[in-house]
Specification:
Number of domains: 3
CATH topology of the largest domain: TIM Barrel
Distance between the termini: 73 Å
CATH superfamily of the largest domain: Dihydropteroate synthase-like
CATH class of the largest domain: Alpha Beta
Low-confidence stretches: none
Helix content: 40-55%
Strand order of the largest sheet: 10-9-8-7-6-3-12-11
Number of helices: 17
Shape: globular
Bound molecules: iron/sulfur cluster
CATH architecture of the largest domain: Alpha-Beta Barrel
Number of strands: 17
Largest sheet: 8 strands, parallel
């Protein structure tokens, strides 16, 4: 039974020291009650409080960690919609290989997984996991492929087999990698649980429907093991969408622990478009791990991009560090541009400068991740603040250029900038980044 804010407050130190980020213990208690804070944020919580509040303050979706250093995380979610607070851990991608494939093909796929990187607004997106499906019928082969996948990629492995002995041997071969054993069901969970405990792995649990799945996770938890992922068996895209939503609503709104686990989806339909739509649904609706049937870079671009969009914290704009960025190979006489440190703005502007073929400096003051007009309206992108940023960066010592291009939307700051930056001439650039290339061709192309 969930505790109320007042019940929780009675267990807190009541010193109102504010170290948890809340103004009072009561405010912190209210956040705990609504799952918007974690008890560990109060450094003075007594052992008694930890014990009593332990279960109550647990996030409704259990945290589970993967990898040798436990570097990958799922769960810990507290809201149904990201704008209510934020989503904490994004969907993880795994690429499947079959152990019956020939060794060269397997090694090529493993290399591709390991080397895959996609740059998006300053972030490097990668594939986090590898899945190995036991199709050969040979447990020795399965173990070899699992071990090879771990050795070559150092990614946690999802071991897919219906052969308990094969799962045991393969699990031992990658002991300590915090990988995933699939598929635990009502008939084999006891044996698989022992294998998971002995080797430090996570269990992927499945059942034909939500009721049976909830009953099974409860049974395994009551038996002392709680590092679980849940796999829904759904027949259609609509059912997948509905089931994912029901399970997450039950966990978050009703604090229903038997469904309070991250999920895993094994995607295998044979149709690339359909598989992509299934994966997109997982990303959009609470999917934990998406196991993709093959390495397909074209598919990954859309999945990675959607994932980045869904899991970006809407309260924290993605931003780049304030500094003077070289675009191309600028020297002391290269043109100088200025824009804000909102990542999308920065990458649009630097991309357009790059497309124009010139080398230049792009000065980016601290604007708290706001776009040009928002930052200007908030007083973060004024003539005085840009001048002061340039001085703090000692940028005037780096270049001989004394012309600076400002975005067209803030042409009104040109006079103020010239006043605060004596010796500099301000040029007003275009309003839209898309027009920068033609602007540059007219102004700077030699
Ligand atoms: S850190 Fe603990 S004691 Fe201090 S205000 Fe927060 S809840 Fe109260």
């Amino acid at each position: 039974m969930a505790l109320t804010g007042l019940q929780i407050q009675k267990l807190l130190p009541k010193t109102n020291c504010k170290e948890c980020g809340s103004n009072t213990c009561l405010a912190f208690a209210m956040k705990l009650a609504s799952k918007k804070a974690n008890l560990s944020e109060c450094p003075y919580a007594s052992e008694e409080a930890k014990q009593v509040l332990g279960a109550a303050s647990e996030p409704p979706v259990k945290t589970v960690q993967f990898g040798k250093e436990k570097e990958l995380k799922l769960g810990d979610e507290t809201v149904l919609y990201r704008h209510d607070k934020t989503f904490v851990n994004h969907t993880l991608f795994a690429i499947n290989i079959d152990d019956s494939e020939n060794t060269d093909t397997i090694n090529t796929t493993l290399e591709s997984i390991k080397n895959y990187e996609l740059e998006r607004v300053g972030e490097t997106l990668t594939i986090e996991m590898v899945s190995v499906t036991h199709k050969s019928g040979d447990s020795k082969k399965f173990t070899e492929v699992v071990k090879n996948a771990w050795d070559k990629t150092q990614r946690p492995i999802i071991l897919q087999s219906t052969d308990v002995e094969a799962l045991k041997k393969a699990s031992e071969a990658i002991k300590g990698s915090a990988s995933v054993i699939a598929y635990a069901n009502k008939d084999n969970w006891k044996e698989l649980k022992e294998i998971a405990v002995e080797n430090g792995h996570i269990l992927s649990v499945t059942a034909p429907n939500l009721n049976e799945l909830a009953s099974l996770t409860e049974t395994i938890k009551n038996d002392g093991f709680n590092d679980l992922l849940i796999n829904f068996q759904t027949g259609s895209l609509a059912e997948q969408f509905q089931t994912n939503t029901i399970a997450r609503r039950m966990a978050i709104k009703n604090n229903y622990k038997p469904l309070g686990y991250a999920s895993i989806k094994y995607i295998q339909s044979g149709d690339l478009l359909e598989e992509t739509v299934i994966a997109l649904t997982e990303i959009s609706k609470y999917g934990g791990i998406c196991v993709l049937p093959a390495f397909n870079p074209a598919q990954l671009v859309s999945l990675m991009t959607l994932r980045l969009n869904i899991f970006t914290d809407p309260q924290k704009p993605i931003q780049v560090d304030p500094k003077a960025y070289p675009v191309g190979e600028p020297d002391k006489k290269s043109p100088v541009f200025v824009t804000t440190n909102f990542s999308l703005t920065y990458f649009l502007v630097s991309g357009e400068i790059e497309n124009s073929g010139i080398s230049a400096w792009l000065v980016v003051p601290q604007c708290e991740g706001m776009s040009v007009l928002t930052a200007w309206a908030a007083g973060k992108f004024s003539g005085a603040s840009i001048a002061s940023a340039i001085k703090e960066m000692n940028f005037e010592d780096q270049v001989e250029t004394r012309e600076i291009v400002i975005p067209g939307y803030v042409s009104q700051i040109s006079g103020e900038l010239e006043e605060n930056l004596p010796g500099w001439k301000v040029l007003v650039g275009p309003q839209e980044a898309a027009d920068l290339e033609s602007f540059i061709k007219v102004k700077f192309a030699s």
